[in-house]
Design goal:
508 residues, alpha/beta, nine-stranded mixed barrel, five-stranded mixed sheet, 23 strands, globular
């Protein structure tokens, strides 16, 4: 493990929900995301500690920076733009990553780890270089080490989530289930430290007995990790429970590596005799001071107000949403995630603000953008991607199958009435006195669709006008697979105009 400084520098940090030396003069921010939750780090460096210039956690987290995502990568980049110094991925289970294939996406300028058309991890090659930390869920050292070997230096560091209390983690022997399994903790962290080309960290929760928490933290330090996150609630506790600041402070005093104190962005805490919420940069700094930690992890707040990372203050709801939608257009974010984030930012206003109501009713990304007067940006970005992509139809000369990798939100069918892709393609055949479309499986010798073994999603091909069309974007059911195949056919036949409104979301 690279040489590290002997004492951790104080910072503030923002961590995942399920989702380091000189004392520097400014605050730096980090971001996590877990599934539909996006999170970040605040980091405050102070000015007196000596700095290590070798490779290691110190350099990873302390290089001077001009700036102190699926939606994960998008939200991480947005947070970097607001002042984040490092960003964390959502917690990804090791086996899922190991099932993925690494691809370079030249259209978006990203590194994608994909299972079929599902992007498991997307990293912005330029914007996140040296700033993105991979957060994994694991229950054994062998798999964790394989992940480290797989990602290499695509990430700046690897973090093991040992604090998640959710059933999927506990039942899988991951997350908070590891807190009482020291042999397994040693196996996982030691294997990672020995294999990883980048620094390794982990995140824990406080235990029922404070002395046991200190013993665990010191045990973890001896495995060679470069830093440690500490959540001030116990495994059975949730955001409504008190955050044990004193217990975090005792861990800070007991170890010599950087400690990241975890506090949710909407955690109530006492300030000047009253209970309030962490809403500003200054309040996070105060929390860091009270715990004595190097950094403070904050959750939740950043999903509704990612501009909490700005020293200048939080943006208005209108600005937050428009800034997010601008990047959603640039990154070709899908409908489901775009709508989720905008609704989260809207909060109760989605019931009162006309734009919020329009967002709730929207069935595509462009309709959401239209509600916020961002349609021109959407069209500009779509045209730019199309120019990079070139011909949308890719033909397999061996099989003759023509691929158009498109999809659309299922909700779009509910507003299409009788003008769905299948209906439009059927009418086209009637008008041209052609045989009606035939929908079949791709590779299994029974009709309709095939279900992919890798992710149990469906693909369908359609034969029409003596040609065969297919979208390789998997669908959750057979009917959707047929509708998407029909849309692919209409596009390849230059008959997309038969469908009203916005339908397709292209696969980047």
């Amino acid at each position: 493990m690279p040489k590290l400084i002997s004492r951790c520098p104080p910072y503030l940090i923002f961590v995942p929900f399920t989702i380091f030396s000189k004392y520097l003069r400014h605050v730096r921010v980090f971001v996590f995301q877990n599934e539909l939750h996006c999170f970040g780090f605040f980091v405050l460096h102070r000015e007196d500690l000596s700095r290590t210039h070798g490779q290691g956690w110190t350099d990873t987290f302390e290089n001077d920076r001009k700036d102190s995502m699926t939606v994960a990568s998008l939200f991480r980049v947005l947070s970097l733009d607001y002042g984040a110094d490092l960003v964390y991925t959502e917690e990804i289970v090791d086996q899922k990553l190991l099932s993925a294939t690494r691809k370079e996406n030249h259209i978006l300028g990203t590194i994608d780890y994909c299972i079929e058309d599902d992007v498991v991890l997307r990293i912005a090659s330029e914007r996140e270089r040296g700033k993105v930390v991979l957060q994994i869920g694991t229950n054994n050292g062998e798999s964790a080490a394989k992940v480290a070997a797989m990602v290499g230096t695509d990430v700046a560091a690897i973090d093991v989530n040992m604090g998640c209390p959710k059933p999927f983690s506990i039942q899988g022997g991951m997350g908070a289930a590891l807190l009482t399994q020291t042999d397994r903790v040693k196996e996982i962290l030691s294997s990672l430290v020995a294999t990883s080309q980048v620094p390794v960290s982990c995140k824990i929760r406080v235990l029922d007995d404070p002395s046991s928490t200190i013993a665990l933290a010191q045990f973890i330090e001896r495995t060679g990790v470069a830093a440690m996150g500490v959540h001030g609630r116990r495994r059975s506790e949730r955001p409504g429970d008190s955050n044990r600041e004193e217990e975090i402070r005792e861990v800070v005093r007991a170890v010599g590596i950087p400690v990241i104190a975890n506090v949710y962005g909407d955690d109530p805490y006492t300030l000047s005799g009253g209970s309030t919420e962490m809403e500003t940069h200054e309040e996070l700094l105060a929390f860091r001071e009270r715990t004595g930690a190097s950094s403070v992890m904050v959750a939740r707040k950043a999903l509704s107000n990612p501009s909490i990372f700005r020293k200048e203050g939080i943006y208005s709801m209108d600005t937050e949403i428009k800034n997010f939608l601008q990047r959603a257009c640039e990154w070709d974010e899908n409908y489901t995630m775009t709508k989720y984030v905008v609704q989260r930012m809207l909060g109760g206003e989605q019931e009162h603000d006309p734009r919020g109501k329009a967002t709730v009713q929207a069935g595509s990304v462009v309709e959401i953008c239209r509600a916020w007067e961002m349609e021109d940006k959407y069209e500009e970005c779509r045209a730019a991607r199309q120019s990079k992509r070139g011909d949308r139809v890719e033909k397999d000369e061996t099989t003759g199958v023509e691929y158009v990798d498109v999809t659309f939100p299922m909700k779009r069918l509910r507003t299409a009435h009788s003008n769905s892709p299948r209906c439009a393609l059927f009418k086209l055949c009637e008008e041209n006195k052609e045989e009606k479309p035939i929908y079949e499986c791709v590779s299994i010798p029974f009709p309709l669709q095939r279900q992919r073994d890798s992710d149990r999603r469906y693909e369908a091909e359609v034969r029409v006008f003596k040609r065969t069309f297919l979208s390789r974007i998997g669908q959750t059911n057979k009917k959707m697979a047929e509708q998407v195949a029909a849309l692919a056919a209409l596009i390849a036949l230059n008959e997309r105009g038969r469908l009203d409104g916005e339908w397709e979301e292209l696969c980047e």
